[in-house]
């Protein structure tokens, strides 16, 4: 443990960098507990951004627990007292919701007719979502927090320091918004709706607010007991002060508000927490992913085609860099994740702490049993005609006789994922072409070389002679992907492909209908010598591009 902690104190992995900054903070304060927080707006269902935020926060939390024995907690706070501003387009019984506009989400009828309210429904979905992924957290409801009195002390302080907080807020608002803005949003005593109205008076002694409702009637309410809520920016800072939060991360779209959140927290007697601002995800066209527009990839969509761990791996990578989150990245993330798993056992402690899989698995890193890359499985699905993972296993067992679904569970799962991914994304976009004369001659030689030992060695010998190499010829092994790759490479050189990638582009485009593909020697070993030769014959006959 000492060696691990020492290595963690110098690790350049971003969770450890954040954890060390947090340790410095809590040591300065003499705190005996560290509180992490992540917020959730329950107007919609949990999404991939929710997963990323809680996952990354958890990665920092676990990194902190490596370098310190100070206990930690993670709060997931639901802003369910917010008024419903518009009716979501993806729910049933929308007419019922239309009648509940501006009611707190925990007072809006549940359109699914399963829970006490729409807010309760979405909170339950959030908790089920977090539980599914095994996150360790405490759930807090804004409705409960305000109405139970747990926010009362901070709300009283907000009334006492109203002018100071308003001064901070007004600087950030347009002139017309300044005229009606108040940090307090009353809940109407009769209708229960959240009101966006200016204050006529804020009493710092009695801790009350006075305002006119939409009908011009004057009301005076205490700020305590759930009679008011705070606007979202002041609520951020007030929550930090009330809970004594030490760490919260949020997206770049919040970054301009950070000084506002911090200052309000300080005015209310708290110390602003450490922050971590992550970049937002982009869709295939480089546009920001939006919950409302539905661009990008959802959690359910990712998990249709790959494992949770591959998504966690993606979330770990460069959180401060905007990244495309589209379906075409999934195969790459799966294969990179397993490459890192395979590298982990051979690394020293420093290397392991810098390896993303350490953080994906909270230090309990499993062995990879993925003996065939995901990209290769996709190509195998493309040429084999397999419609289920059992069909792929026929080829996998020829390539790796000792592999089995029981001994290689991640490979077995990946085979099923590959079939689905191929059917939905690869097959509809395949575009085969005919070879030109130069490519046709090379393909014929490749076909003949993988069928005949003498021809295989001859083409390798000619390549070596041309390069002036006295390297001995390799041992013939038709199951060895390195031997097969040397044949593929030698044929390309023999036929004058410069650069050599033009030869591999030919193989992918003519034989697989794709612009890129696997290491071709490995593909031949997996698919089979006779099958690959037959595939080349089909391409030469025009059957693939027909």
Number of helices: 25
Low-pLDDT parts are none
- Could you tell me the strand content as a percent range? 5-15%
**So what's the CATH class of the domain at 2-141?**
Alpha Beta
Share of helix, binned: 40-55%
Q: What general form does the structure show?
A: elongated
CATH domain topology of the domain at 2-141: Rossmann fold
The gyration radius over C-alpha positions equals 30 Å
Q: How would you sum up the major sheet?
A: 5 strands, parallel
Summarize model confidence as the mean pLDDT. 93
Structural class of the secondary structure composition?
alpha/beta
Do you know the CATH architecture of the domain at 2-141?
3-Layer(aba) Sandwich
State the separation between the terminal residues, measured CA to CA.
Answer: 63 Å
Strand order of the largest sheet: 3-2-1-9-10
Instruction: Report the CATH superfamily of the domain at 2-141.
Output: HUPs
The count of strands amounts to 12
Notable features of this structure?
single chain, 546 residues, alpha/beta, Rossmann fold, 5-stranded parallel β-sheet, 3-stranded antiparallel β-sheet, 12 strands
Structural notes for this entry:
By secondary structure, this protein is an alpha/beta fold. The chain has helices spanning 2-8, 14-29, 48-67, 94-98, 118-132, 142-148, 152-160, 162-170, 175-178, 232-243, 258-267, 299-305, 308-316, 330-343, 349-354, 356-360, 374-384, 389-399, 409-426, 437-449, 453-466, 481-494, 501-512, 520-527, 529-540; strands at 34-40, 72-78, 138-141, 184-186, 201-203, 208-212, 218-222, 228-230, 247-251, 274-278, 281-282, 323-324. α2 (14-29) crosses α3 and α21 (453-466) packs across α22 (481-494). The protein is elongated and about 100 Å long. The model has no long low-confidence stretch (mean pLDDT 93).
């Amino acid at each position: 443990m000492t060696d691990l902690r020492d290595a963690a104190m110098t690790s350049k992995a971003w969770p450890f960098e954040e954890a060390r900054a947090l340790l410095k903070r809590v040591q300065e304060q003499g705190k005996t507990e560290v509180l992490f927080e992540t917020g959730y707006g329950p107007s919609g269902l949990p999404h991939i951004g929710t997963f990323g935020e809680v996952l990354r926060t958890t990665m920092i939390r676990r990194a902190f627990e490596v370098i310190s024995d100070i206990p930690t907690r993670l709060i997931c706070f639901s802003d369910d007292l917010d008024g419903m501003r518009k009716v979501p387009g993806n729910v049933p019984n929308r007419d019922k919701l239309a009648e509940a506009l501006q009611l707190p989400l925990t007072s809006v009828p549940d359109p699914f007719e399963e829970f006490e309210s729409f807010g309760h429904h979405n909170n339950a979905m959030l908790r089920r979502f977090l539980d599914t992924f095994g996150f360790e957290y405490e759930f807090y409801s804004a409705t409960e927090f305000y109405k139970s009195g747990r926010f009362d002390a901070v709300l009283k302080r907000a009334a006492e320091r109203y002018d100071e907080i308003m001064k901070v807020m007004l600087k950030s608002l347009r002139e017309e918004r300044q005229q009606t803005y108040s940090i307090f949003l009353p809940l109407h005593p009769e209708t229960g709706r959240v009101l966006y109205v200016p204050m006529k008076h804020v009493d710092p002694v009695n801790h009350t607010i006075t305002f006119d409702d939409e009908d011009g009637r004057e009301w005076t309410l205490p700020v305590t007991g759930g009679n008011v809520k705070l606007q979202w920016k002041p609520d951020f800072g007030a929550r930090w002060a009330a809970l004594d939060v030490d760490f919260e991360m949020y997206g770049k779209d919040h970054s301009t508000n950070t000084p506002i959140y911090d200052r309000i927290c300080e005015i209310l007697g708290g110390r602003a927490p450490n922050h971590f601002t992550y970049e937002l995800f982009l869709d295939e066209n480089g546009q920001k992913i939006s919950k409302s527009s539905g661009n990008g990839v959802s959690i359910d969509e990712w998990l249709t085609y790959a494992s949770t761990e591959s998504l966690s791996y993606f979330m770990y990578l460069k959180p401060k860099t905007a990244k495309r989150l589209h379906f075409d990245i999934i195969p790459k993330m799966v294969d990179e994740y397993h490459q890192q798993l395979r590298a982990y056992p051979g690394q020293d402690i420093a290397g392991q702490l810098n390896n993303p899989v350490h953080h994906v698995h909270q230090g309990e890193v499993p062995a990879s049993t993925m003996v065939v890359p995901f990209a290769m499985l996709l190509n195998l699905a493309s040429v084999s005609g397999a419609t289920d993972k059992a069909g792929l296993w026929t080829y996998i067992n020829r390539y790796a006789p000792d592999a089995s679904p029981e001994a290689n569970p991640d490979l077995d799962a990946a085979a099923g994922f590959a079939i689905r991914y191929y059917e939905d994304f690869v097959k509809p976009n395949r575009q085969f072409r005919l070879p030109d004369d130069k490519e046709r001659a090379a393909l014929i030689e490749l076909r003949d070389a993988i069928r005949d030992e003498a021809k295989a060695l001859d083409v390798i010998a000619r390549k070596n002679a041309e390069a002036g190499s006295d390297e001995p010829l390799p041992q013939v092994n038709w199951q060895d992907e390195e031997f097969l790759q040397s044949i593929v490479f030698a044929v390309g050189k023999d036929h004058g492909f410069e650069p050599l990638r033009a030869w591999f582009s030919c193989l992918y485009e003519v034989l697989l209908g794709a612009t890129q593909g696997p290491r071709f020697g490995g593909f031949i070993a997996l698919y089979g010598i006779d099958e690959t030769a037959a595939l080349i014959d089909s391409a030469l006959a025009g059957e693939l591009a027909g």
